[in-house]
Amino acid sequence: MEKFPGALIQSKDSKKCVKTYNKLGYTLFYFEFQHREKWAQDVEKAKAGLQATLIIRHPDDNKLYVNFDSEILTLIREAKCLSRIGIEIPESAKIVLLQEDKFKMYNQELQHVLKEYERIVNKIRPNTKSLLVPHLEDLEYKLRPGMVTLTWTSMNIDGYLHHVHSGLSKLEQLIININDIMENRIENNLKSLSKSVLVELPKDSSRTFSLDDFVSMQEDWIKDESKKLKSKNIEVEGAVEDLIQTICSYSLDKHVDAISAEEIQKLSKYYNWSMYQALLHATKYSLNAMKERICLRRNSPQIKLRPFFEVDVLLDKNTCTLEPNLEDIQSAINRAAAHVLKSTKNVQNWN
C-alpha cells in the first residue's frame, strides 16, 4: 500500500480497499500471533521431555529402549526455521537449540549401546545362560542410572556412557572366551570322540583273517584307542573346569548375587553326561561297523568284498564240516566285541 501515490489512497473510491486491506492485515497478524503463542506453549511441553530418564524398559516385551522424545527434534527444527525468517523465539527454545548437537549425539550413543547390549546377550549359548545370570545383572546394574536418575539435562552422561561401554566390552570378552572353550576344547573333542572307531576293519578287500589274528588285531587296536579315549576324557574335563573358572573369576558388583553353586554343578553334570553319550555312540558305532563288515548280506553294496575270515571246508567221508566252525567264529566275534565294550573301562568318571 505504501507504493501507491498518496492522492490515490486518499481518494473516496480507494478508502474501501484500504479498509479491506487493513482488516486482512490484522487478521493475518492475529493468526500469526496465535500460532506463535501456541508454539511457545508447545515449546515448554516439549522441553519437559528433557526431564525424562535416558532409558526405559517396555512393559510388554521387557526390552530396553532409548527414552528420547521425538518432539524435541521437531522443536529444534521449527526453532531454526523461525529464527532464519527473523521471528523472535523464546529463551527456553534458544537453550534447547544451542544443545542440538549434544542431544543428537547422546541419542545415537545410547541407541548404539542398547544394540551392542542385545548383540552381546544373543551371543550367550543356552548351556551357560543360567550360569551368566549374575553377569547380566551386573551389566544391568551399570545401565540402571540411565533408567532411574539420569535425564537429558544431566551433566555426567559422558561418564555414564564410558562406564557402560567398559562393562559391555568386559562382558563381551568373557563370552568370547567362554564360547571359545566350549566350541574348540569341549564340543569339538566330544564330536571327535563320538566318531572314534574302536575296531580295526582294514579297507583292503583282498585280505582275509584267521580268528586268532582278528582277535589279536582288535585287542592291539583297542588298547591304543582306549588311551586316546582316556586322554580326550581328561582334556574335556579340564576344559570344563577352565570354563567354570573363567566364569567365576569375573568380578561382579557387590550389589549382585554370587554365581549359584547349583548352576555350576548342572553345567558340569551336563558335560559329564555328554561325555557318556559320546562314548556310548562310539561303542555302538564300532559294533555296528563290525557287524556290517563281517555279516554282509546278499543284497549289500559291499558284496564284492572278500570274506573277512579264512574258513576251510573239509570233506570227511559223507560229511562236510567247516574249519574253524561257526561256534569258533562266533566266539572270536564275541571276544572282539568284549574288547570294544572294555575299551572305555579305563575312562574314569569325573570328580
Write up what this structure looks like:
With about 350 residues, the protein is mainly alpha-helical. The chain contains eleven helices and four strands; from the N terminus they run H-H-E-E-H-H-H-H-H-H-H-H-E-E-H. It has helices at about 5-10, 15-50, 70-85, 90-100, 100-120, 125-130, 135-150, 155-195, 210-250, 260-295, 325-340; strands spanning about 55, 65, 310-315, 320-325. The strands form two sheets. It has a two-stranded antiparallel ribbon. A hairpin with a 6-residue loop joins strand 1 and strand 2. Helix 5 (about 100-120) packs parallel to helix 8, helix 8 packs parallel to helix 10 and helix 9 (about 210-250) runs antiparallel to helix 10 (about 260-295). The radius of gyration is 41 Å and the shape is elongated. The termini are far apart.
The description of the largest β-sheet is: 2 strands, antiparallel
Summed over residues and divided by their number, the pLDDT gives a mean of 86
Beginning-to-end CA distance, first to last residue = 101 Å
- The ordered string of helix (H) and strand (E) elements is HHEEHHHHHHHHEEH
Number of H/I helices: 11
Q: What is the helical fraction, as a range of percent?
A: 55-70%
